[in-house]
């Protein structure tokens, strides 16, 4: 039987990608652009044609030198999406779509080319009008529309809430375009997860497997499960857990480390030469992130590129109260590589005017509450209250919050360990506050 033209076409595109200069994408760049799992592209054939029982390794097709991603059409991209959410073993189709997205992003100075591409996938795929019977998960093995319904449900779980930069009251000014931006971001995150699924001989569609995993992992995870979400290969500050409160709050003693930091309240010029380009400038803290990423990736006085670390801290620096409002000043912090933890002055110096400063963080004790999902303003506020209550639940509590001048209970820090395209059920966040032993209640000094 002749090989279908569609599969030949996709294979041509896939093989052409192998020779492209941007095929290998570092993990660190995932904080700036949606990355593609390197091991998936290195270990798995991009697509394998059905061979009617013959070994998949026996099939080999070659692409012409002139084949490029630009040759693919919207219809072919939709077919790739159908393959990506279909049978197990089709994870490479999601990888090809991610490559297309990266190329479109590189072709333009902003996301103008990416948005229509993703919108087409959404409107003609999971967000298209579907019959009522497609809700049955059992039909997903046999029905493309039922698989789209599974993708829609998983997108609903994955779509981020309103960010801090978009609204201070969570829903104010939440326009349809902003909702669509978040929907497109969720689709990219799901494509990453689909591309990273282990190939198997299971007949369960890939999107159904992912939906089940999302629903399972969104349940209250253990501390061990949350810690497993720290990205592999990235340095993070050292600490020891010396106490646990109510089974959920850890008391940690941190060892010294150092950070590069930038104010989140100061106005930054657009397209600052010292900033790294970010893929989603509409997100809260995007300009601050770009400033720190630019410094870390080599836009410093020594032109020294450093390895990415984790987490990204958002830390209050002061709270100013007036007769009309209370304003909280914040700074964003990247942890520097460990060879600068003992002496931050040895780190590359920021370029004047970049707004980036270097800071030494001394050893301290902090109460930490871990949680998954998106760290929206509303969720973080609730977690801060939960942490405070855990520290003050008992009059015999051995730990008390350190007071900063006239500000009590206000110096809560947020730590985010994963890049913006990580699905919520694989995210680790923490809220923390500095504490000291309550000597009056008999705790050790």
UniProtKB/TrEMBL annotation:
Signal peptide positions (record): none
Low complexity biased stretches: 159-172
Lineage: superkingdom: Eukaryota
Location of region: Disordered: 159-181
Coiled coil (UniProt feature): none
SUPFAM superfamilies (alphabetical): Probable bacterial effector-binding domain
A Pfam family matched in the record: SOUL
Similarity comment: Belongs to the HEBP family.
Name of the protein this chain belongs to: Heme-binding-like protein At3g10130
Source organism of this protein record: Seminavis robusta
């Amino acid at each position: 039987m002749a090989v279908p033209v569609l599969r030949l076409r996709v294979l041509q595109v896939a093989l052409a990608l192998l020779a492209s200069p941007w095929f290998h994408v570092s993990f660190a760049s995932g904080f700036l652009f949606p990355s593609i799992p390197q091991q998936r592209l290195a270990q798995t054939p991009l697509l394998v044609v059905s061979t009617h029982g013959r070994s998949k390794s026996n099939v080999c097709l070659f692409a012409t030198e002139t084949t490029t991603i630009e040759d693919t059409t919207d219809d072919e991209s939709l077919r790739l999406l159908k393959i990506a959410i279909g049978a197990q073993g089709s994870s490479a189709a999601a990888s090809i779509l991610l490559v297309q997205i990266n190329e479109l992003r590189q072709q333009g100075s902003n996301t103008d080319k990416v948005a229509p591409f993703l919108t087409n996938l959404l409107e003609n795929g999971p967000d298209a009008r579907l019959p009522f019977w497609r809700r049955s998960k059992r039909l997903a093995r046999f029905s493309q529309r039922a698989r789209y319904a599974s993708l829609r449900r998983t997108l609903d779980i994955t779509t981020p809430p309103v960010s801090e930069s978009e609204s201070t009251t969570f829903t104010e000014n939440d326009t349809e375009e902003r909702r669509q931006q978040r929907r497109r971001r969720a689709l990219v995150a799901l494509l990453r997860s689909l591309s990273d699924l282990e190939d198997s001989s299971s007949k369960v569609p890939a999107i159904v497997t992912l939906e089940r995993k999302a629903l399972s992992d969104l349940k209250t995870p253990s501390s061990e499960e949350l810690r497993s979400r720290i990205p592999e290969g990235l340095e993070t500050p050292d600490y020891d857990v010396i106490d646990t409160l109510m089974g959920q709050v850890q008391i940690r003693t941190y060892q010294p480390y150092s950070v590069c930091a930038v104010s989140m309240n100061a106005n930054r010029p657009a397209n600052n030469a010292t900033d790294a380009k970010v893929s989603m400038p509409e997100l809260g803290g995007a300009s601050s992130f770009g400033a720190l990423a630019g410094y870390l990736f080599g836009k410093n006085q020594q032109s020294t590129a450093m390895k990415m670390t984790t987490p990204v801290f958002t830390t209050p620096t002061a709270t100013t109260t007036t007769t009309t409002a209370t304003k909280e000043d914040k700074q964003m912090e990247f942890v520097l590589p460990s060879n600068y933890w003992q002496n931050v002055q040895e780190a590359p110096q920021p370029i004047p005017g970049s707004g980036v400063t270097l800071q030494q963080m001394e050893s301290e004790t902090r109460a930490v509450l871990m949680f998954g999902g998106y760290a929206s303003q509303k969720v973080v506020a609730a977690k801060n209250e939960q942490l405070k209550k855990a520290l003050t639940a008992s009059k015999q509590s051995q730990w008390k919050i350190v007071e900063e001048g006239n500000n009590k209970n206000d110096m809560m820090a947020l730590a985010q360990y994963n890049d913006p395209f990580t699905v919520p059920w694989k995210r680790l966040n923490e809220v923390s506050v500095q504490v000291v032993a309550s000597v009056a209640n008999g705790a050790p000094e």
